[in-house]
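Help! Submission page says 'invalid entity' but I think these are all valid:
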Amino acid sequence: MMSLLRAEFRKLIRPLVWGSGLAVTGFCLLITWGVANNARGGMASPRIPDVCASAATAQCRHVIAHAHAAARAAATATGALAQPGEIGHVAAGMLASLPGLVLIALVAGGHWGGEWGQRTIRQLLSRQGRRGLVLAAKWLTIWAAGVATMLICWVVLALAGPPIVAGVGLPTAHAGLWAGLGSSVAAAGRAALVLGLFAAVATAAGTIARGQLATTALTAGVFLLALLLAGISSVGRLSPASFIQAWMSFAATGYLPTNFWSRFAGSGQHVGQLAGLMGMTITATVAGLAARWRFAADVTA
Amino acid sequence: MDVIACRDLTKRFGPTVAVDRLDLRVSAGQVYGFLGPNGAGKTTTIRMLLGLVAPTGGQIDLLGRRLPDPRVTARTGSMIEEPAFYPWLTGRQNLQVLAATSGGCPAAEIARVIGLTDLNDAATRKVRTYSQGMRQRLGIAAAMLGQPPLLIIDEPTNGLDPSGIRDIRELLRGLAADGTTVFLSSHLLAEVEQVCDRAAVIVRGRLIDEGPPVTLGAIRRQVRVLVDTGDLATARDLLGRWPAPHSADHADGELIVQHDSGRDVNAALVAGGVIAESVIVEQPRLEDRFLEITRPEIGRAPEPALKGNNHDVTVAS
């Protein structure tokens, strides 16, 4: 198994994987810069109701003061992006939501679906007849690509956060650099399980679709459908998107860009965190069984 | 010892029978040809031997073990159709990855197969820059990794230039001399004749002939002679020493005998005082041979198949 894993990891070192990881990291950076910029803009010109724009009543003065205080508070909270510990939330949340899904779908398409598209699956299976091992190795390497990207994203954000915050002129938080590290690590751990679910569905998609683009499309399509289902009140709580939402406890609002999911999945349809974990486990198991069943079929590529 | 033993091997894809009750036995150390036209079922048979496709019926014993058995897969070197590689890796890296997939092998072994296939200069180049011939060589190198006791190779000389074809043939003979069993699938009669100790001929999924290549009716050449109709009876007597296919058509002064040499046939006719209008050496197509075999009850050749350009034809000089 270790030798097979070495081979699979070696195959991951390719432009597609680097490029996808780079794109996701770049997206996280852009989001971070955008949020910091918005917070700075909000502080400079807080939202003041039109009726108070020119009025000088006591009530309006109170409203304006409150708006300035809220904008300062938001900017200070957003200043947490300068803390390497706290910014782990951004990396974990992004990789456990749509950017992570896109990454896994792209990597799985190239790394697994591409084995059929390029017909290398013949070489692979004629040298390694234990198909269960091949599936496990593929799942593990796709998942590892996701986790590695999350960690790289965290490191890059940790390095880029302070200059971004300083550059846009946000007030920095008085907390220590490593404040929030514990909860960020916990979020990253939870995100790793979500990436495992993405990878399980992607592995199954590869055995079903048997092609690079089809694998990417099927993986992304499954979760986009799940996000749509999550918005339907009658079935939403049974959607894998709701399980992820509940497991990650994604906040619908907040100062930090901690996810790209809750605005699509809603509040998680009142699924508890443990129920979310169980739902994710069941979804991954179903994906694994589908992969085993489909992968037992003839390979005629 | 039989390295490959198939009994009643059958594969159906829906209503299509790709391989039909195939019996094969390949002994250790042989270069065994597996001959058939395109679409005959060769590749499907090879896929079944390698565990890529599950048989619908029958059984396969490979290296003394009943399939499916993943342990056998790891001990079999193979190359199926056009070999496929990871284009973003170099030739050497591809071999390293493939070796690791089945448990790994030392760097010296990878260097050995690179040397044997004459890829030393190209081993550090990305495979996407390889020509078809280089990919073919790399495919053969990959199949030889770890010195497997059994090599299953599909169309090994596709895309190779004449010197490459000669090199690969010599390589395969050398491997067999060292005790490796080579199962060589090809649609090229000449290739099988030159390289193989024994051969099986498969057409439309059915085994139609098996034995040493020189004895295979399916690949034996024939000479088509055209004489004046007045000389037909004499010519038939003169050429009686050579067998005639049962489908031979004697109409219009034409005779067909199974023999390699048009020169011999012409000499026999001249010695008997018959001057031939034409003497043509033909290599019957396997498909024609199959049709001939499967239509014995009507005792004739498939209409246009034994005439015209459906054959590999050599005009005797």
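Support: the input was valid. A stray whitespace character was the problem, and the output above is from the cleaned input. The interface with chain A takes residues 47, 50-54, 68-74, 76, 78, 80, 82-89, 93, 96-98, 100-104, 142 of chain B (CB under 8 Å).
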